[in-house]
Amino acid sequence: MKRRWHFVAIGSASIALAIANPFGSAHADGPDGGPKFGSYTLTATAPGWEMYEDEPSANAHPEGGVQAPYSTSALSTGGLGYGLSSIAWPGATEANANGVAVLLFPKSLDVPGGPSVPVPDAVTALFQQAAPATSYPVRAEARTGTASPDATLDGQAMTLKAHADALLANASATTKGATGQAGFSFGNAETISSSVLNDTAGQASAESKITKIDIGGVIKIDSVVSTATASTSSSDSSSSGTTVVQGMSIGGQDAYVDYGGVHIGSQGQPANAVVSQIANNALKNGGFSFFVSQPQQEVDGPTSSYTAGSLYVLWKPPGNPSENSFVIALGGSRVSVTAQPGFDTASTPIVSTPSSFVSSPAVSPSRRSASGGITSSPATSASPSVAVTKPKAAAVKSSPIAATFDGLGGQAMLGVIGAGLLFFGFRRVADDIVDRAPTICPLDST
Question: Are residues 218 and 78 in the same domain?
Fold first, then answer.
């Protein structure tokens, strides 16, 4: 009996494998297999220029700030995608003032010397009706789980786009020129951010380019291009970036920027003392001073981040009784990536990279500041670009137990063998039951 039931069990398992194997293979090889990471986060932010204003008498510091234009994208575990672009981003808190106001709106009012009085329903309804008007409108915002993966906002001097799905989130903002506070102006500007994911790799990239910068008529720059990119697998990661200042002049005199700061004169040539004095006097009289930030890079296994260098201009306009100060930041594209392997995925490094990924040199696992700072180059030098292309999900080959019986013929053979074992097993069992010699109950014996 025990041996015959084994035939039935083996036959049932064979038929089950024959049926399940083609479905398993089709699911694993299908185009919608999705990422094989257990967890991941890919973010990219591309600011054009950032300005912060403050004064000693302000109630909060800094008193105000804006990023123009601005793009950011993010992908995270569970296929959550987000893309945002804005012509002048005031920050998440100020841009979503309607939500903040609803949270802070009181439900009741305390009356001195008496009990709390509920706010009338009519007042609450009026507030809730007016609150959405406080939301910052100049943006294109897309997120997964909404009716459309794309958002756009077109105007005479701007084009904003955002896209978000489970494998790609990107955003771009393009402006045709604007004039900021206190005589600050710029020409065309563009920011692009992208977060991309496939079965074996994730990447984030950010690029910003701003042209024809004029700060108080004293500092003029043809363009500033800032890029950052990072990629990760389930075992390692890499990141890189650069910020290039082109065609800079101070007080009408040529200037350039490198990791040591801002210098008067042409790059690679000794500075002229007279020219330097003219430029320095123009800076002093205009209330300007410069600061240069080094790029920041962190690499630790599958986690990596990169913040490109920035040129900071501190401006305290003369004849300013309120002592207002402005900090203008140019550059500073930033990315961050991390990923952990799934339970059924081997932890192996990336062998090949999709063409839409920007390659970067491998970095040994460590945490450090990147070298190089920001640099100057002739105005004719080519600007870096970041491709924003949605890769196709790579096929993942499955290897079930029945892989020996590959193809339709193998599946049919496995099914026939299983059916034969079932038939033989059930037949022996049936014969044993039907043909078994009758026995006499001991109680019926005398």
Answer: yes
